[in-house]
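Pilot study result, target chain (213 residues):
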Amino acid sequence: MPSLYHQLLEEVLEGDLRPGEILVESALGKRFGVSRTPIREALRMLEQDGVLERVNRGMRVRQTSSEEVLEIYGVRTILEAAAARDAATRRTDYDLANLDRILRSMGEARTATPQEMAAINRSFHRAIWQAARNHTLADLLERLAVHLRRYPATTYLRSGRWEEALEEHRLLLEAIRRRDPDGAAEVAEKHMWVARDVRLDMIRDGPDEMSQP
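Predicted structure:
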């Protein structure tokens, strides 16, 4: 059974706990049938992760904003480029086979739901992080991925974005395959810039699009 921390984290990421919502220890204790001590520990961990923030009335789900999107993608672009560079240098034949398999599954997923597309996309990026052989880099990227998942709508809701991402991933894999660290880093950067701009457009277009399932 998932820990209390993971249950609350998933509720935030799935949008069951909305940005700005106050979390009351006593109510959570009754709901999960536990004392306040494990509740406080779970909330503390979520605060450390940047998922919750402390306010006068206790803890609330951290607000989302276009400014935060810019911050997250600014850092993630640097880290994704570093991971792509390392992957191009350190990748193995197994890494290539794994990336080829995921890319094929992306090509076969044109009729999948946007959420299914997003899950496959995360698998592709995690495979690159694995190929980079840098645990610290992978850990930082995982934390940033959690922050982006706090935004309920995937960029693959946008018409044509999946096909664009598929081509961007193909170019990235080819650079890694030919052991071209500079080329891989450049493709990774451009891929992140496009994703950032699409997400900012979705925020500007208003809550109707951002709340789509």
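One observation from the pilot: The chain has two domains: 4-61, 66-210. A full batch analysis is planned for the follow-on phase.
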